[in-house]
Amino acid sequence: MAWHTVVIAALALAVACDLYLRGRALLKERGRARGGMLAWSENRRAFYELAGREFERARRYDHPVIVPPS
Questions:
Q1: What's 6-60 look like in SS3?
Q2: How many CB atoms lie within 10 A of CB 46?
Q3: Would you list the domain boundaries of the chain?
Q4: Per-residue confidence (pLDDT) for residue 68, from 0 to 100
Q5: pLDDT tens string 18-48
Q6: What is the dihedral angle through the alpha carbons of 39, 42, 44, 50, rounded to the nearest 10 degrees?
Q7: Are the C-beta atoms of 54 and 65 separated by less than 8 Å?
Q8: CB atoms within 10 A of CB 34
């Protein structure tokens, strides 16, 4: 009866470890997806994330959003 408890605990630990490692890998891939590897330039996803934060900040403080000409 005691060995069942040990086996279940070992399996739970293995599942928790696997989920932790998968979560870290997902965060790492999301970080890679934001910028280019060659020039470390930001891509569309990073632009929309930044623009969303800026629009929220402008709305929160009731400031206009200004886009400078390039």
A1: HHHHHHHHHHHHHHHHHHHHHHHHHHHHHECCCCCCECHHHHHHHHHHHHHHHHH
A2: 14
A3: 1-34, 35-65
A4: 78
A5: 999 999 999 888 777 766 555 556 677 778 8
A6: -170
A7: yes
A8: 16
pTM above 0.85, yes or no: no
Question: Could you give the maximum distance between any two Cα atoms of the chain, in Å?
Answer: 73
> 């470390």: which residue's tokens?
40
Query: From the CB of residue 14, how many other CB atoms can be counted at a distance below 10 Å?
Result: 10
Rounded alpha-carbon distances, angstroms, from residue 58 to 47, 49, 65: 16, 14, 6
Radius of gyration from C-alpha coordinates of the chain? 22
Residue 61 carries which side chain, given as an amino acid letter? Y
What integer pLDDT is reported at residue 1 of this predicted model? 65
